[in-house]
Each structure stands twice: as C-alpha cells, then as structure tokens.
Amino acid sequence: MRDLVRMERIEKRFPGVHALKGVGFDLRAGEVHALMGENGAGKSTLMKILSGVYQPDSGRILVEGREVVLPSPKAAQDFGIGIIHQELALMKDLTVAQNIFIGREPRLSFGRIDEARQNREAAALFAALNIDIDPRRPVDGLSIARQQMVEIAKALSARSKVLIMDEPTAALTDSEIADLFAMIGKLKSEGVGIVYISHKMDEIRRISDRVTVMRDGEYVGTVEAAETPITRIIEMMVGRKLGDGAVVVPDLRDAETALEVVGLTRGREIRNVSFSLRKGEVLGFAGLMGAGRTEVARAIFGADPRAGGEIWVHGRKVDIRSPADAVKAGIGYLSEDRKHFGLALGMDVSDNIALASLSSYSNRIGQLDEGAMRRTARDFIARLGIRTPSDRQEVRLLSGGNQQKVVIAKWLLRNCDVLIFDEPTRGIDIGAKSEIYRLLAELAAEGKAIIVISSELPEILKVSHRIAVMCEGRLTGVLPGGAGTTQEQIMQLATDRSGLGQGTRQEETA
C-alpha cells in the first residue's frame, strides 16, 4: 500500500514542555492506523500538527510523497486531511446539510445559497456511506452517534483522503459502535486512510491494521495489530508491566452494612431495586446502555427525585431529597461527566479538593483559611499521586486521570463512607486506569463502601467483589466477583427482560 502521509523527526516545544521529541508516523491508503499512548504522550499534539492546528518546530510532513507545509486547518483540508475531534464541533441550530457545507455553500446568482443543491449533495454523501439521515433535519435532534456521522460526512465532502478520529466511540452504544465500524470498513475499501485514537484496547484489535505507540512525547514503536498481544501494547504505552490483577474477594460476611436500598422506584427508569453494600466492599453495577445504573446512583444521591423506596446508611433510615442530604449522610457521588458535575474547571486543584468541605475552612465571618486548604490539597496530591505542577494549577489543564483523582480527593476530604463511582475511567488512559483500580482497592481496604458503575465488562470483573446486573430498570441478578464469573454470565442477566427479579433471591444469600 502507498503512503498517504509520512511525518519525520517532528519536534514541538511549548513553554516549559518538550511535547514532541523527533517523532515519526506514517499512514497508508486503505488502513486504520491506531495511535496510542497515555494522556500527555503527545498523540493529540502530533495530530494537531498534521491537521494544521499547530506548526512543528522542526521535521517534515509528506503527503503522497510531496513535502508540504500546513499553516492552518484550511491548508490541511486542501491537502485532503480531515479531523473529527472528541468534542464534536457542529452548530446545533443548523440543518445537517448546512453543517456539512458551512463555509463552502453552493451558490445561486447574486450569491444566494443553493439550499436544494446543498441538500442533494448531502443526501448523495449519506447514500454513499449507507447512512439514513435526512439532510434537512436540524442537528440538535440527532443522537451523538448520528452527529458523529455528520462530522465524517463533512470531512469527506471536502474530499478527505486522511481522516483522524479522536476517541470516536466514547459516547456510543454497542450498536452505534457497530454502525461506525461498518462505515470505517467502507472508507478503508475506498482507499481512505484513518488515524484512530482510542483508549479502548478491545477496539484496537477489532478495527486497526497497525498500532503506533507514543510515550512522553517520543515514538516507541509500530506493530501489526493482529500479531501483537494487547499486553505487549500496554507495556509499550506505560513502560512497565501491569499485573493482571484478578480481584481478590475478601470475606465480608461479618462486615457492617454501610448502605441498604429497599424498593427504589422512579417510573420506568428504576423498578423496585433493592440491594445492600458492606463496609470494605466494591459492588459493581453492570448493564447495557439505558439499563438504569446511573439513574439508581442519581436517585440515591438525591440528584433526581425518587417515586418510592427507602435508603438506609449504617442501619439508619435517611431521607435524601437533595445531594446536600446525601453528603450529610456520608455519601459521595463521582459523576460520569466529571467536567460538568464534578469539577470547577477554571479553579485550581486546591479549591476543587475543598469544594465539598468549605465550611471546615471558614471562620465565623466567612473568611477561608487558604493556607490550611493548600496544605490539605498537597497532602492529597501526594497520597493519590496527582500529577500537577502545584496545587495552584487550574484543573482544566490536568489529564483526565488526574482530574478524576481530584474529584476522589474532594469526597475523601469530606470523609464519605459510601462512594459511588460512575464510569470512573471513561476517557483516561490505560496507565491512569491502573492507578484508579489500585486506589479503589486501597479505599475498600480502608473500610470505604464503594459502588462502581461501568460499561466495560473487563473493568467490572477486575474491580468488583460482587456484581449487580440491571436490565431495563430492574435488578436481574447479583453475581460473585473474582475469577469464577464471566462476561457471558453478566450479559445473560443484562439482557434478561423477563422481569423475574432473580436479584432479590441472590442478594439474600450473597
């Protein structure tokens, strides 16, 4: 296969940071080339250089064998290079066709936009991609998966030969991922080269032909995806071996019950859910998208009202009507959307850690003891291994894994006995995931009662002492953790629409 792109000896520095150190990368026509590495490895910087957002300090870029300069995203587009960012950049109030051709609209006489032609050309693009989307429909009404397909059509409308996809499946369901992979397969068959950035190891094996790994701004190596074990790719990424880490299930039969939920109900989202959680236990919640896992967590935390049910903490019935009530009862909730609901991105690490405990640092006239706040923050930075230049660093500048640790520190400072982690490793790299797993185990060993909600079955199996499985708002079963439980057993319960409620019987004997 011929090279579409070759990047040689790319260097890039930012103030105080040597982001890229002589990095090389190549992409062939008709292949999916996965670009992998931990957060901060330099993947995004390299792709921003290829897409014209940044300019390299040195090195050269060749497109189809010819050396080029890419001073802007428009210049990159002119050379057939398109990028689909993780954060989609569509204008929600415009139609699908208007988004695809924005800035390149076909015109009638006197400069008027030819809406009919624009719609026809958008429809032709979707037909070629085997996608059923009405070009006249406003983007705001589309699912995230459909919006992503509009972004792909937009890139291809500019005759892109190179397509860069950054974490394209982060917010997609399994069926939507299957549709996306089918589209990628079609693009490959037409000779489009795709750079695929993802932290999901199972996807890399399914979709990519080659894998290039970066670490600390340097090129580590390129391997054939089909011939290279996942463990080898992980070792290349982190520079060390990560243990298999099958969870060791402690004997908690005599442990105190920290949380008991009885008959929790909220319309069709939560249907008579009951379970218990002991001190020192990690209870995983598994299920397909829309099963009701997050809804259960939000109802327990008081973020959403519940129609019925009881919540008991340490044997005492509590009336939780708001998050403030939950925090007062000793329950902390780490939302799956940490950037919107867990962090104040414009504030620094110290302020974020203290957010849920400000009253502890206030005197009688409301003044904050910032010195005490900073000392506490530095203690948590050291304890949790938060990688930050200082406690004064703005949280928005930290990697995803370190942002997650800041949220954990916030709830540990509040001394919550029950911690609910909703998708704790979403969007963070494999090394940071390993650190979060280690931290979960340490918190459980200290006696914290932990709920972990995750869409990744290997993750659920890796961290959970027991696994509660939901389907369509019901708890369909509770499985033991450890080596004896399989993904197939979880999926059987996750697709059990009989509503027989096996979970209650299993819960009583678990």
Describe the overall structure.
This protein is 34% helix and 25% strand. With 510 residues, the chain is of the alpha/beta class. The strands form four sheets. It has a six-stranded mixed β-sheet with strand order 6-7-8-3-9-10, sandwiched between helices. A six-stranded mixed β-sheet has the order 16-17-18-13-19-20, with helices on both faces. Strands 2-1-4-5 form a four-stranded antiparallel β-sheet, covered by helices on one side. The longest helix is centred in the middle third of the chain and has 16 residues. The termini are far apart. 43% of the residues are buried.
Short characterization:
The protein is α/β, with parallel strands linked by helices and 510 residues long. The chain is 34% helix and 25% strand.
Q: What would you call the quaternary organization?
A: single chain
Measured by DSSP, the beta-strand proportion falls in: 15-25%
Basic shape: globular
Radius of gyration: 25 Å
Instruction: Characterize the main sheet.
Output: 6 strands, mixed
Distance between the termini: 56 Å
Q: Mean pLDDT score, rounded?
A: 86
**Helix-strand category:** alpha/beta
Assign a percent range to the helix content.
25-40%
The helix tally amounts to 18
> Which residue ranges are poorly predicted, with pLDDT under 50 across at least 5 consecutive positions?
500-510
Strand tally: 20
* Side-by-side strand order of the widest sheet: 6-7-8-3-9-10
